[in-house]
Write a structure and sequence with these properties.
The complex is a heterodimer of chains A (694) and B (153). By secondary structure, chain A is of the alpha+beta class. Chain A is built from 23 helices and 22 strands. Helix content of chain A is 47%, strand content 22%. Chain B has one domain: OB fold (Dihydrolipoamide Acetyltransferase, E2P), CATH 2.40.50. Chain B is globular.
Amino acid sequence: MDVSQYLEIFIDETKEHLQSLNEHILILEKEPENENTINEIFRAAHSLKGMAGTMGYKRMQRLTHDMENVFSEVRAGNMKVTPDLVDVLFRGLDALEAYLANILESADEGTEDNEDIINDLNNILKAGVGGGIEEAAPAAAANAANTAAAKTEPADKCKFKYLKLEEHEKNAIAKAYEIGLKVVGLTIYIQEYCVLKGARAFLVNRALEEHGEIIKLDPSAQDLEDEKYDFDYSAFIITKETPEALIKYAMNVSEVKDVVADYYQLSEEDKVSAASASNTGKGQKAKGNEVKAGKVPAAKPAAKPVVNRSVRVDIDKLDVLMNLVSELIIAKNGLISASSESELMLDSTYHEQIEYLERITTNLHESVMKTRMVPIESVLNRFPRMIRDLNKKLNKNMELYMTGEDTELDRTVIDEIGDPLMHLLRNAADHGLESNEERERLGKNPVGSIFLDAYQEGNNVVIEVRDDGGGINVEKVKSKAVQMGSITQEQAGRMTDKDVIDLLFQPSFSTSDKVSEISGRGVGLDVVKTKVEALGGEIEAKTKLGEGTDFIIRLPLTLAIIQSLMVVVGTEKYALPLGSIQTVEDIPLSDIKQVQGKKVINLRGNIIPIIYLNQILDCEKQEETSEENPEELLVTIVKKGERFAGLVVDRLLGQQEIVIKSIGKYIKCPKLISGATILGNGEVALILDINSLV
Amino acid sequence: MAVEEAKQYIIIKLGGEPYGIEIKYIESIIIMQRITRVPKAQSYFKGVINLRGEVIPVMSLRLKLGLTEAENTSSTRIIILKPEEQGAPVGIIVDEVKEVITLANSEIDKLGYDNRSDKATYSSGIGKYGDELINILNITSMADQERQSSKNA
C-alpha cells in the first residue's frame, strides 16, 4: 500500500503526540492519581499505535502497544504509578523519538527492537497487576463497553439501507445474484479520535476487496480519502462471504469502532428473502457488538470536538510571499520618490492614493509577518523534560518555571533559538544553582528554581533565563581572565562589573573548575552570543552574588523588513534601524567634552560617548555646506542594551520602511554594516549595525 | 577523429590588453551604474549596485589585477558574473567589451605551474586568436580567493 502521501501528516502528528506524552507523563510523575492526565496519555499512546500500524512501522507499533497496555492498567486502577515506571516510560518515549528520527531521515523506522524497554514494561505490568484482577478488569470493561455501546447506538445503524442506488449499480447487483453471488451492504464506523480517517477507510476497503468487489461507496472513494466524511460510511460489495465474515475482516483494521452488515436485496426481489435477511441482520448486530467488545477492551470517552480552522503551509511558500511583499515595498518607495521629484506631488488625489497604498503595504507586510509567527511554546516544551533529566544526572533538586509560552516569534528565529536557550538552561542548572546541601547551609530553599520568561517589549521579544543560585563571582572571573591572559592585571583593576561579565561571552571562557558532561567545556556563552547576534538580537547578563544570574535575550520581531531612519553622512546615505534610536539632538559644539581622550557629551545627566560616523566610515568631506563651521552637531542617540552612544550625522532624511538585503559573500563586509537596502530611486544604501558601533 | 572541443569567450579590454572570459560564467553586461561605496571593504571592491532589485558587489578588474585605475568612459561596462551556477553573482568593471570568439582547446596554451605570481592564479591560459594573444581569466579561482579573503577578515 502506498502510504507515502500520509508520511508528512504522520510525522507531524507523531511529533505532537510524543510531545503530549512527554508533558503528561511529567505531570503524572507529580500527580500519580490525576485521572485526566492518565486518560490523555492513554489516548495519545493509542493514537500513536494506530498511526504507526497504519504506516507499517511494526517496531514502533509494538513498543507503543506495550506502553499502552501499561497505561490501560493504570487507568483501570490496577496499577500504581511508580518512579520506576515513569523512568521506563521516558526511555520508551526516547526510543519512539529515535524511531521518528529514523523515519524522518529515510522513511524507515530502523532495526532497533528496544527489547529491554519492552521487557521492562512487561515486567512492571506483571508485577503491578495481580493475576485475578487482570482477568476481571478487561471483562468488566468489556461489559461496560457493551452497555455503553447499546445505549448510544441509534435505532438503526444500517445506514446503507437508505442509500439510493444508481441504475447501473442496481444492474450490477441483479447480475451478481443471477450468477450466485451475494451482495452485502456495510456501514463502517470509525473511532471519533482516529487521526488518519482517510488512510483508515482505505485500509478497511482494501481488507474488504480481498473478499469481493466493492461496487459502491458512499461517500465516494475520493471523498473518503480526502477525509470528507464524518465517522461512518457505507459500502456495497459483491461477494461469496457472509456478512459476519466481512464484519470480521473490517474489524481487524484498528480504530474501527463498529461495522454493521447485511445482505442487500433489490426491492423488486422476493419479499420472503428480504424478511429473512433482516433477521440475520438483527443477529448480526449483536455479534458485531461482541466483536467490538473483544477488540476494544474499554469504552473511550468521546474525543472533544476540535474546531481546527487552520492549514499547514510550507515555510518556503511563505518565504516567497514575504519576498514579494518586499518587492512591493521597494516599488512603493520608488513611486513615492518619483512623485516627490515631479509635479505629481502637487496633485492631492495622487498623494492620497500613494498614502493609501502605503497603508496597504504596511498592513500586508504585518499580516504576512504574522502568518510566519509561531508561539515560542514549540521550543520551550522540551525543556521541562530536560530539567527533569538534569535533576537526576546532577543530583540537584530544581524546578523550572516558565511563563509567556504563547509569545510569538518568526518561524526562522524559532528554529534557531532552541539551542542557545538549552545552553543557558544547562548552564543555570549546572553552574548557576548550588548543590542542595549548599543551599540548605545558606538558608535558601533547598530546591533550586530556574525561571524562563518570554514576553514582548516594543518591537522586540525578550527571553529571560534566570536562576536563584549563587550568581557570578566577579572577582573569580577577573582572576581567571588574568590567569588565562585575556586581560592584564592593570586592566582588571579598571573594569566595571559589567565589563567583567561581558568577558563570559568571549570564546573559550569558563569559570567552572571542573568540566562536566552537562557544560563547562568553555564552549557555551560565546556560541549563544554568536547565535543570538546572527538572528539580529542581543544578549546581556545581570548577576548578584548569592542571589542568582539573569540572562536576557532580545530578539527582533521581524528579520526582513524594518523601519529605519535615513541619514546622510558626507555624501552618502545610510539607514539606522529605528528600533535602536532613542532621540535626535542638536548639540552645541561647546557641550562636547574630552574625557580620557574620548569625546563625550553630558545629556540630561547621562555621559554619552560621541562617534563621528564620517571618520568611522572614511567618508569624503561633504561638499561645502552653508555654514562653514557649524556651531551645532546633529547627534542621533542610540541605545544597545544598557549602553548609549551618540552618532554624529550631517543630515536627516526621515523615516522609511526598508527591506534588508545581503551584500553577498565576496565583498569583505565590515562589522559595522549589517546589510544593504534599495531606496525608492534605485540607489543602494547601507544599513549600519548599531550593535558593533556602540 | 573526434570533434575538437571549443568554447566561446567574450573578449574584454583593460588598458588596451585583451582578456577572455568563458561565456558560461557571464550573466549579463550592463552599462556603468551608480555604485554605493562599502567602507572598509577590499580596496579593489568599488561597492555595491542595484541590479533589478538585487544588491550585487562590484569590483574593479583593473585594481584586482594590479593595474592602475582609469577614468570611466562611455565604453566602460560592468559584467555580472556567476562563478557557480547556484552561487551569488558578482560584478567586474572593465574598460570595454569587444566581441565573442570561439577558441578550440588546442588554441589555448596552459601556463607553467612554476609561475606562482598573483596574475597566474587569475589566468587559466593564453589563447591565440589571429595575431592576438588573449589572457583567459580563471573566474572560479578568482571567486574562491575572494571568498577566502572575506572569510578571514
